[in-house]
Specification:
The protein has 643 residues and is of the alpha/beta class. 42% of the residues lie in helices and 14% in strands. It has 3 domains: 294 residues, Rossmann fold (3-Layer(aba) Sandwich), CATH 3.40.50.970; 155 residues, Rossmann fold, CATH 3.40.50.970; 136 residues, Rossmann fold. Strands 7-6-8-9-11-10-15 form a 7-stranded mixed sheet, sandwiched between helices. Helix 6 packs parallel to helix 7.
């Protein structure tokens, strides 16, 4: 740990303070930054590994560039902790990702230093090009735009769309490829192998080093000759690799690879690159988790701190309880797809760079030839699945709900239009918690229910998840979506024999007389809790777990309308266009005079906090449901008195 007696970081509130230091002091700043991040993450867990890896890079960038006039864009945004600490948020960093605290991602509304909001990946090059072109059109002089793309983001197709456009322009942008061979799990694919080849080629790196030293001895350190070598080292690379550099092919000048943990060397390189116009790529090699041994040794586990931990040993603190814990939905998915793959040899699994996050890594161990990590490439994942289905296989595509948005066109055009049996499993559906607005999976019910041929479903518990997965792989089911939330389900004894669920059929959970509550998915458990509370007060509810939004169970809806004139719908998704809208539309079509109150996520972006805090803010936790029921019952009683 750094020496706190002569702490430099505590006197750095903004990059201007950093730039007053001598170059020789920068390594100390980096050490103090790492210690600060480790201490904060130990008590308030957040994204750890990637942030430790970019400390030196971040310090060098803010030291060399005139931020915020010069614009930094981070991709993925979860590597921006050092950036936030150096740009006015050190004193409030303890609130990182907490309710009403600062965001864990760059956010334009939070700071002028956050040039572009980034939650998902592969967007930085396109955004940097747009900012650079806007700056030129406004006549701004000498403004530099830097995109830091790392943690697997370069595998996303949008990154290459940006490269293609930017390389054909004369925009003065710098793309920093922060390569650590990781996203959350190890990187996959040809691009990753290519970057590894570039960084470890002993022939190229040793030859470049020998030439560099010779030029330094003959002409002196920092000579023009050395700069010429930097600018024209592509010829050397072409000789060694016997192929064109991929970035040079896109029209970028390529520099590197360089040590991403040499902060002074990086600062000097950035100062040199300022004088070179046009699109440029600097290839920086970093180690995820740098400076914290447990994170260096297990980058996947420590991508985000797995809980509060001891900063010296890395031991994660756990709480013990005599009550058996029910498993997470993602765990049940991972175990269930293996069982189904044993029963059905046509089943394959696909994930875009999230095998650990979605638990497809379990299937990868048992069926390595039938489970695919395609990298951060959600649109490709869906069309790849469509191709597999067209070829006779039965793909299960597991993508977080908020990331599924990126493949919407492929779902419509390549899967649904052709009525292919692709099973879309959306993990982290609904409110996800501390990752905030960029990661909440609140739109899938609304955007899936509008797609022809698509079955849209959500389980209330882990047993229902298993049975929906089983149902989805039965013959002639077509496109099938299943959404489930982050976290644990309500059932401990979840592993039971598979049962087919009739598509479009819900189930009655309990009978009551005052009003009906229709729920979809895990939030049905909130209704169960609310029902128990209200029963004590003498208010009884009829509760229906609808299971499906499309096709919706019209028999249940007719049954409810025949008995009740007041209905509440509950969903962990946007109210506008979602499950409640589907219920409302049915009653409007059928001419039934029913009063409907919809509970769910209001039509605004919800910020970060715990899931419990945000469910309460949106008004559809058990307390919110009770409050709504009481108000409706009281209103009806008043009307009866008046009548």
């Amino acid at each position: 740990m750094a020496d706190l007696k002569n702490n430099l970081l505590e006197n750095i509130d903004y990059p201007d303070d950093l730039r007053k230091l001598k170059e020789a002091q920068l390594p100390q700043v980096c050490g103090e930054l790492r210690d600060f991040i480790i201490r904060e993450a130990a008590s308030n867990p957040g994204h750890l590994g990637a942030n430790l890896g970019v400390v030196d890079l971040t310090v060098a960038l803010h030291y060399a560039y005139n931020t915020p006039y010069d614009q930094l864009i981070w991709d993925v945004g979860h590597q921006a902790y050092s950036h936030k600490i150096l740009t006015g948020r050190r004193k409030v960093f303890a609130t990182n990702r907490l309710y009403k605290g600062i965001s864990g991602f760059p956010k334009m509304a939070e700071s002028e230093y956050d040039s572009f909001g980034v939650g998902h990946s592969s967007t930085s090059i396109s955004a940097a090009l747009g900012i650079a072109v806007a700056s030129k059109l406004k006549g701004e002089k000498d403004r530099k735009v830097i995109a830091v793309i790392g943690d697997g983001s370069m595998t996303g197709g949008m990154a290459f769309e940006g490269l293609n456009n930017a390389g054909a322009s004369n925009a003065d942008i710098l793309v920093i490829l922060n390569y650590n061979n990781m996203s959350i799990d190890p990187n996959v694919g040809a691009i990753s192998k290519y970057f590894v080849q570039m960084q470890i080629s002993p022939t190229y790196n040793s030859l470049k080093t020998r030439i560099w030293k010779i030029l330094g001895k003959v002409y002196g350190v920092g000579s023009i000759a050395r700069r010429v070598l930097q600018k024209h080292q592509q010829a050397l690379k072409s000789v060694v690799f016997r192929e064109s550099n991929i970035f040079e092919s896109f029209g970028f000048r390529y520099f590197g690879p360089v040590d991403g943990h040499d902060v002074i060397g990086l600062a000097n390189i950035f100062n040199d690159l300022k004088a070179i116009p046009g699109p440029k790529v600097l290839h920086v090699v970093t180690k995820k988790g740098k400076g914290f041994t447990p994170a260096e040794n297990d980058a996947t586990k420590w991508h985000a701190a797995p809980g509060k931990f001891d900063i010296k040993t890395g031991e994660v603190f756990t709480t013990t309880s005599d009550i058996p814990e029910s498993p997470k939905y993602q765990y049940v998915f991972g175990k269930t797809i293996i069982e189904l793959a044993i029963l059905n040899e046509r089943i394959v699994g696909i994930t875009p760079a999230m095998p650990s996050g979605c638990s497809l890594n379990m299937m990868m161990k048992v069926f390595p030839k039938r489970a695919f990590d395609v990298g951060i490439a959600e649109p490709h994942a869906v069309t790849f699945a469509a191709g597999l289905a067209a070829g006779g296989m039965l793909p299960f595509v597991n993508i977080y709900s908020s990331f599924m948005q990126r493949s919407y066109d492929q779902i419509i055009h390549d899967v649904a239009l052709q009525n292919l049996n692709v099973v879309l499993c959306m993990d982290r559906a609904g409110i996800v918690g501390a990752d905030g607005a960029t990661h909440h999976g609140i739109f899938d019910l609304a955007f899936m229910r509008n797609i022809p041929n698509m079955t849209v479903s959500a389980p209330m518990d882990q047993v229902e998840l298993r049975n929906l997965m089983y149902t989805a792989q039965l013959p002639n089911k077509g496109p099938f979506s299943i959404r489930y939330p982050r976290g644990n389900g309500p059932i401990v004894d979840w592993k039971r024999e598979f049962q087919e669920i009739q598509v479009g059929k819900g189930r009655k959970i309990c009978d009551g007389n005052d009003l009906a509550v229709l729920s979809i998915g895990h939030v049905g458990n909130f209704v169960v809790e609310a029902t128990s509370i209200l029963n004590i007060e003498g208010i009884t509810l009829s509760h229906y777990d609808m299971r499906f939004v499309t096709p919706i169970d019209e028999e249940i809806l007719d049954e409810v309308a025949a008995k009740f004139d007041t209905i509440i719908t509950v969903e962990d998704g946007v109210i506008e266009g979602g499950f409640g809208s589907a219920v409302t539309e049915y009653f409007a079509r059928s001419g039934k005079n029913v009063s409907i109150t919809r509970l769910g996520v209001p039509n605004r972006f919800i910020e970060h906090g715990s899931q419990e805090e945000l469910h309460h803010e949106c008004g559809f936790d058990a307390e919110g449901i009770c409050l709504t029921v009481r108000e409706l019952v009281l209103c009806r009683q008043k009307l009866q008195i008046i009548g």
